[in-house]
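User: I'm putting together a teaching handout on how sequence relates to shape, and I'd like one worked example. Could you take Glycerate kinase from Faecalicatena acetigenes, show the sequence you're using, and then write out its predicted structure as tokens right after it?

Assistant: Happy to. First the sequence, then the structure tokens directly below it.
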Amino acid sequence: MKVVLAIDSLKGSLSSIQAGNAAKEGILNAQPDATVIVRPLADGGEGTTDALIEGLGATKIDITVTGPLGKPVHTYYGLLPDTNTAVLEMASAAGITLLAEEEKDPLRASTYGVGEMIKDAIVKGCRDFIIGIGGSATNDGGIGMLKALGFSFLDVNGRETKEGAQALDTVFSIDISHRIPELNNCRFRIACDVTNPLYGENGATYIYGPQKGVTESMKPALDSAMQQYARVVNKTFAKEYSSYAGAGAAGGLGFAFLSFLNASLVPGVELILDAIHLEEDIKDADIVVTGEGRMDHQTAMGKAPIGVAALAKKHGAKVIAFAGSVTLDASACNHAGIDAFFPIIREITTLEEAMAPANAYTNMKAAAEQVFRLL
């Protein structure tokens, strides 16, 4: 029997690899002769870098960059072994969680630190990038990131613009002559699960601006400024990406990646499954095991375990899922490719006790063992 495990992290309890290793122990207790492979799983959002560092043996690169409001931020990214690939999350440099509620300032918040992370990886030889762009504190159209990579944004007098959303409607021209030359040889794959355009009622400012501090009275002016910025970018590159699905992601960072860096925006789960080469492992698997902290009807709407299930079904494997908890409407997952799912909680307990890593590990191991004894 060949079993492939790709379980998303149980946030606050177990990392993806820890959950997989716990289930592996239980499976081997029940089926000592089984071939069991554990792979990391993430959705391109928070925790993706950690999952790939731990699961693929990547090197963790610590770095200090410029935070969203200019203060230094200590963060890190991962270098995947033997591939010249860097994995990073924009939120670790320009994320909303880096600011207290009273600090949110979309007019000043900048993605400059994201560009610094990319530049550092380029210097270290990386030419392939996997970047998650969820959870931003910014609405700057990617101007900050691009400045860090050598692009210049000039006002009508030929002076460098400021950063943040306050710069958008002051951009009159763009100088690309000093951009980092290695960018021509770089490939950017962006984990993006939103489909919003850059501007308009469904764009970056109107939909995601409020959580970053954009007030109702600010929306029209900022959205108009984003349109002005887009017109200059489109004229500079003779391309039109402002209405592209995902251009509005991360306050217009999706638009910047598309327009300036020829990036591809890919659903997060799809991008990560490709990065870990999961399909190669699944091709001859008998059973595929997945799961996450909580399974409900939203799991069935394209979250990471469903991506795993789709690959498994493509190759005729049975799919089992384990979760910290399940809801009544989680039965939707059965219609989305998961043959059976099981909560791992074994007795009445408090949430704190259930989420304690040692308890979660033991529960995952025990649940997997009992299911595979039946198999």
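A couple of points you could highlight for students: The two ends are 10 Å apart (CA to CA). The chain has a mean pLDDT of 95.
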